[in-house]
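Aim 2 progress. For Four helix bundle protein, the working sequence is reproduced below.
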Amino acid sequence: MSKQDEFKQRTKAFGLRVIRLVQSLGDDRVSRVIGNQLLRSGTSVGANYRGACRARSAAEFRAKLGICEEECDESIYWIELLVDSDLVKEELVAPLLSEADELLAMIVASINTSRNK
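Predicted structure tokens for this construct:
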């Protein structure tokens, strides 16, 4: 399996974990709003990575990866807000935050590698 295929699987698994987290949130207004934001950004990481894999040029690849970077960072923000507002216990989302941090680092590294080619 190629690194690209492995990363597609990781970003999809991340999106699925985000879906499960959002499904577990309460039905109050704050949970719905933050959950919807997280759902959009967390599932967007994998979708945009797939788009990057179909890029027609290095510039388009970097641009699409830039969107992945923004969406992944935004996902981290929304998860942190859930924890900081006591809607979710930190220990329950620590592995998800760790995965988001790793994905973000890998995306940034890919952008930098593409720039240096």
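The chain has a mean pLDDT of 96. This observation will guide construct design in the next reporting period.
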